[in-house]
Amino acid sequence: MNKTFYLSENFSLDTKKRLLKIILNGKGKYKCYIPESYYELLNVFQSSSSLKGSLFKGLTFYIYNFDKVKKNRLEKIILIQQGSIYNPDTLFNANDELLIVTSFTKKFDPSIIGKFSIKTRVITNYWVEKCFLKKKIYDFDKYPMFIPCSLENGINGNYNIDNDNDNVNENKFQ
User: What superkingdom does the record give (predicted)?
Assistant: First the structure.
């Protein structure tokens, strides 16, 4: 069985290298694709008929809390799959739901939800990317990576260990 792994641009280069080693040490035939940018991933598959589809048809997205480059990448993925990007003039039906896409690792401000007069659901960019790469819609609530972080300071992966007693000192989490 062949499997292809896509290592997200959100991983550091060191993390990508470690994951690549783990993947390549596994059994079976594996391919690992590490794009320089998400645009590269889209451009590689641009000629593929499987890139364009209707995966997000009927869904409207609001991209929140991303830099301009990442926001543009997410919008491109959504539009390629016939999704819509929210704008204030968009007309909604009573049963419609707005998907607010935010980062898993950045603090999410829930007050943004009050900005909209329709039902909303908050998801992460990982949901959009995984659905796109796997060509299927995943259950929002099934995986924690699809739900934004609610920690006060977000997640940055750094922590310090108190060497005196070999326990993690909770006050040193960053």
Answer: Eukaryota
